[in-house]
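Readers of this paper often ask what the protein records in our data store actually look like. Below, we set out a record of this kind in full and without editing:
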Amino acid sequence: MSGVVGTTGSGRTLLPPNRVCADCFGDDGLQGFVRGHADATQCSFCGATASDDIAAPLGEVIEHIRSCLARDYNDPDNAGMVYESAEGGYQGRVWDTYDFVRDELALELPNDDDNSLFNAICNGLGSQLWCTRHLYSLGPDEALAYSWETFCMLVKYERRFFFSQALRIKADDWELLPPDKLLELIAEYAVAVGLVRTMPAGQTYFRARYQQPGETFLHPSELGPPTPEIAKQNRMSPAGIVMTYVSEDAATALDETADEPGTYAIGQFRALRDITILDLAQLPPIPSLFAEISDTLPYDPHEAIRFLHRLADDISRPIARDDRVHIEYVPTQVVTEFLRTTKLPEGVNLDGIRYHSSRRDGGISLVLFADRRHVKGASGDPWPKPDPWLELVGRSERVVAYARPPDWSCERLQARQ
């Protein structure tokens, strides 16, 4: 029911009791909660008014804050923190409510010039002490992060091929996900968050190749993916494993490829069918601690989306252009191999991964799980059973006038007729 703003006999407006508007918070999670629970047209703290309800009961907002904090924080007694009088009290980091809200949470209250909202929140939370919830174990986010770091170390330095048998890395690492479960979780999160998407037939993609003096690349076999014998390692494929790296515009394709002056041929390819991709270029933002999360969700979006952001960052990391074996790329190569060869939940087969270009701001690139069999006109011995779903539909050339400098920019490119 909408709140009522009354008047005194002198006509002075009465503010609704303890109502706060979304603009009084800088956190988007709290802003969303307030908007979803607003029942008054005026804010008690900043005085903002509107014709529609804009302010929610402060008590409800504080209870929401408390319930969200329960995920990561606790009272030191309930958390089992050791207390030793002779050693100065609690043997760990604790805050009183004032310091907790001010320093640990650092709530942004943009309209709270007189600290009235800050003090009201502190009073509402009470005079308890606060500490982190997981004192002697890893929290969910920490466990995922540590599991990923351990997985990376494992496949880089210990087990390159039979890592799935390492069900536990160490006897005391019971909190970590084993490698096979971690890979399965990546697939589950990708589906749950909605990152498995369909790119329509007819979509075009671009691929650039350096032409030695006297060379002219014209055909799908020249502009498309290489043969296994000459396929070099890349951020998502080891040497000898053929995948097709493309971009959504010609400039990004060129930036992804060009390291030295010269002439580059750019092939334009069209998808002959719908393709299914894991879209790491359109990840939703990591939810605020105070975002209102539905109880019916089968996963915690804080953990899932934060973990997928970490994976996307690793995939978009710049790569070195040489023939050395760069073990830093092994983890993302393993993840890609898993996603390429495994049915995702609901029986989905991926055709590729979409990600942010590491060499062009705003550019989007894809690795397509396509070799020469999948490019119309490029197949031949030793490729039996051609199954083309890409075709070459255009070609252009660009001349790069300078070697790639630290501040590489496509402004250094000169179009060639």
